[in-house]
Design goal:
Elements (H helix, E strand, L loop, with lengths): L8 H4 L7 H4 L11 H4 L18 H13 L14 H10 L14 H10 L8 H13 L13 H8 L7 H4 L12 H13 L1 H12 L4 E7 L7 H10 L4 E3 L4 E7 L2 H13 L7 H14 L24 H12 L3 E5 L1 E3 L4 E5 L3 H13 L4 E8 L20 E16 L5 E6 L9 E4 H4 L3 E7 H14 L2
Antiparallel strand pairs: 1-3, 2-3, 4-11, 5-6, 6-8, 7-8, 7-11, 8-9, 9-10
Length: 465
Amino acid sequence: MIPEIKINPIYSNNRTMKTKASCSFSPATTPISISSFNLPRVGSSSAVYQPSTYLSPQDSQKYLYLLNFLRNAQKSPNSPAMLPNAQLDYLLKNGKLLSRTPHDNSSVLDNLYSIATTQRAYGLDQLNLITSTLDILCNPRYVTQTFGDIPDSVKQQAISRLPNDNPAKQDLETMDVFLSGTCAAASIETNMADKYPAEFARWVSKLSSCEKQLELNVDLKAISKNPIEAMQIVSLLKADKVQMDFKKLKVKVDLDDGAYVRAYTQTKHWDNGERNVADVLVQSAIMRLGSQGTYNSLNDTRAGEFNDNPQGLIELEKTYVESLIKNKEITSLVYHQIDDDQNLIGYNCSLDKISKHITDTIDSGDDVILGYVLTNETAGMTQQADYNPATDGQANKVINGHEITVVDYYRDEQGKIVFVCVDTDDDSPELVQYSEDWLLPKIHHAGYPAHIVAQDEREIMKNMI
């Protein structure tokens, strides 16, 4: 369920404003094997990708075509040990290649084949699109929100295609994005590539096609159990929609022109550590869908009625997009009590319950996208050496926030839970580990499958201020 709209600046504070020094602050950080991330847990209630080498005659033809298409492709810095054709084989053997999206029943294989055999928009390179998609599908931890630079020559070409009222056309320096606000979008992208690979491939295929759009076939109950309320929410967030009946609707997903400028730029001028072309397309579309169609990919800003901050998605918008993509009801729980002066003054439930919500969701086979905040007492270089939360009666001033994706957990030798996460803004492709003592008190909000947190939802909503 999407909670009641409450305009609060902290919900808008999804942009990471960390310094380089604080970016490196990763408590108990060690690399994690990719096998613990990509493959669902045994007994998971979500779709499990069974290893399989079976291909129908039609799929065999597509698979062999793609192998031939990729025969001269080079290794990517994101996958130094695997050639693209080996990545394709890896996806076949772990079952992801033949997994299907609930929105149009297409598979990863279908969408990669479509990219290879049909013309792409804006002169986007087919081989680059496929290898970028394979990189993310094989290594979802490589999703990043780091924008690449746009060479001056490309900027001049770009502005010739923009309307006169586009802010980027008035000030070309605004295209130089150093601290992006796409952490929520990048987290959703990570989750798509990890748990919904066919949908991720479909987004890349459709958004890069000459149609430059895709449709989500959404059950109204995925937005709200009340169909009238569901339509009100969709209308409030200004979705481009067509209602099919009293149970379903189609929602169009498209891109602004600047997204294709950035995608083309990353095809020609990509540097290691930057977003690849697949990242650009998917993140830009998520931002546009969540921001009521106002997102500008060139300068990473948005407008809209619910966010005073020109960057990022608020918690409401992120939950809405996540529900549409997964086509199931996502309940967003807000754990922090934050006053009008942006002070963290309390919690809406115990930390043990927050931990259980996360671990139950991971056990069910899905990831958890959450937003955490840092305060002036807890934020890296700004931490006060003499601060004692047990005795200090002063409220914590919230100074910034960030979205990450929890993909696994385990217990350490002391029995404490350690959460394994993807942080798309830490300048590292490695998974990061956060101890429960560090992470749980900082979690402002998180989204879960509705049935997992239904028992605690009412209590938490009641405690919200």
